[in-house]
Structures are given as structure tokens and as C-alpha cells.
Amino acid sequence: MVASKKPKFAKSRRKGWKKVNIDEIDTFYEDVRLKERVGQPLDEPAFKIDKEAEIEPVLNGVKKGKVLKKLKQTKDLAKNIKAYKSLVPSSRVPPVVVFKNPAQPEKKVKPKTYGKSIKKKKEKWTDLKVGDIWSGTPTKAERKTRLKLKSVLPALELPHPGTSINPAIEDHQDLIKKAAEVELKKLKKDEKIQRLLHGGVTKKTQSQMQKEWLEEMSAGLPVANEDDQEKDDDEIVAEDPDLANPKKVIRAEDRKSKSKRRREMLAKMREKAIREEKEKKKKENKIYQLKRIKKEIAAGEEKHKKNMEIHQKKFEEKLCKPARLGPHKYEDPDIPVSLPGELADRLRLVKTEGDLFEDRLKSLQKRNIIEPRKLILKTQKKNVKYTEKRDCRDYENDLLNK
């Protein structure tokens, strides 16, 4: 009887995949999954009856009757028990060994405190200091801070007594004088700008203008005599470049002999030695000038102290002035002033001067809390004209509409 041959088929096509026997592969993967779920079977039984007597080891500092058993390592347990495999390090890279410097002392690490963290109490309004805003005393508890002061100016500045409803004559005249000085400064500034713009232009006659025009138009044109002479000189230099830079000729009488050169060299060496000797003597004489040096040091320290005082004064003055925080400079608001004829004799006829919101805004700018700002009006958009290109025009709809 002839053994039947195995049927041949192409495994590269999907039709032949069904004819492949994969029972062995399935059984192998089932075993693998079972081991992953349960773990590998133990080589030795989990429990056994110990029939041998325990030998008591004799150790220093250990009482009799106690037996110290060597604990199994994690590597040994992980061979058979699945739960211990997660404790074994999976990386094959050895850990980095850090060698401690014996000369450098170890830093003491504070132990961690477990439990409830102590929270800081929030400040209540009852803990704050209460004072009069007009007296200048702080209304809040003063705190220590490392931040620099922005400004020392008070939040609320007392108004000028001349702005009162019924001011004294002297106070009112003083306020008018201050307002007039501000207006005069503005006028002088405008006059200066106008003078710089229009004052530099001078009137000229027709003949002067014609002469200047001819000079400007004739600039760069060749002149007969001067140009010809310059050309001739350039041609000579181009033909013979040695004539342009002739070498200095030394006569035989002017040449230095060896003895003359040697004497000059010795003279230079003597001068150098004399110069060094003088410098050495100066250094030695400085020992006897200690009093003068001490006076110079004291004078320098005094000068430095004065400079520091000046610097401190400038810093204090800077705190009293508005700083440059943005593109715009701080401008003082207009002084609210009423002329003598505008003063009212009754409260019902009093007119309000200034704006409260603007006053607070200027106060914030003056104390360097916000930067000076200017009103920016909305710009009008340009009227854009839309046109349809000839290539993109829909001719069919145009013809139908017609």
C-alpha cells in the first residue's frame, strides 16, 4: 500500500490559510496563557513534614533556644511564584554607584512630618488698624517686605486752600498765580516749536536764488584747465609707478659704522638703567610718605561718603516724582481754579470743578502704580472697493439674467 502524499498548496494566498494545521500552536499558546494566569508549577511541594531535629546555632549575643533562619531572597522566590516576579528589577543596566566624599560633611535631612499641616490664619478686618485717612496714619497693619517702594507720595493729597468755597484772599491769589505759571509754560513751549519750525527759513532775492540754482546745476561738470592738468599727472603716474613713490636714497657719508651703532646701543642701555634706578628710588621713598598716603585715603573715603549721600538724596527725590513706565510721560492735571467773579456767595450756586475719576487716575499714575495713558479714538476703516475679475465672472448667469 502506497502512503498518501500531503497535498501541496500555496500558503501565501488567503485560500490556503484554512488548510494549515495549527493545533500544535494553539496548545502551546494555551499553556503560555495558563502559566501567565496561575504561575509556573512548583518543582517542590508547597508543604512537607520535617522529621529532622533542629540544631541550635551558637551565636554571639543570641539567646539559646532561638533559631535564626536565613530568609529566602526575592530572586529565589520569583522563580516559581508569580506574585514575586513584579519585585524583581527588569532592567539589565546596573545602578549608578555614587561615591561619598569623606571630606564633605553630610547634610542633615529633616524628618518628614506626617499629619495635619498648620495653616496660617487669614487676616480679619478686626485685626487691622483703624485710623483717620486725613491724618496720614496707616489704616492697615504695616508689613515687612523686600520689594522696593514705588513711591512715597500719599494716596490722598490735601487740596490747596485756595480751592475752598469761601477761600482767604491770599490763598486764592496764590492759587491763581500757580495756574498762570502753568499756562505761561505751555505758551512758551508752543512758541518755541513755532520758532523752530518757521524761524529758520530766510527770504532770498530772485538773483540770489538764480545764482544758487546755477551752482547746483553746474556741480560735477568738467573745468578745462584744472581737469587737463590732473589728467596729465595721472598719466605720468600710470606710466612710471616708481615716480609716484620714490625710494629714499642714503649716501655713503650718512651710513652708520659698526662702532657708531654700538655706541648708540650702549647709550640706550645706560638711559634704561638710569630710568630703572629712578623708579626704584621712588618706590623706596614711598615708605616715608605714609602720612600723605593716609591723608589721601581719608580724603577718598570722605568723598565716597558724600557721593553716597548725594545718591541717597537723588533716590529719595526719585520716589517723590512719577517714573517713566510707558511710552507717554506723566502730565500734571489742570489746576481747578475759579476767578474772583466766579466765586459764589451761596452753596446752591457753587459749580463743580474737576473730575473725581480723573483725579484718582492721575493719583495712581503719579504713584507709579499704573503707566500714563492717553485716549485712543477709534479709527475709521477705509472704504474698500471690490471688483470681480474677468476670469472669475459667471457669464452664463449674466446671459440668463439679461
Automatic annotation (TrEMBL):
GO terms for biological process: ribosomal large subunit assembly; rRNA processing. This is Ribosome biogenesis protein NOP53. Residues 225-242 have a biased composition (Acidic residues). Keywords: Nucleus, Ribosome biogenesis. The keyword Ribonucleoprotein does not apply. May play a role in ribosome biogenesis. GO terms for molecular function: 5S rRNA binding.
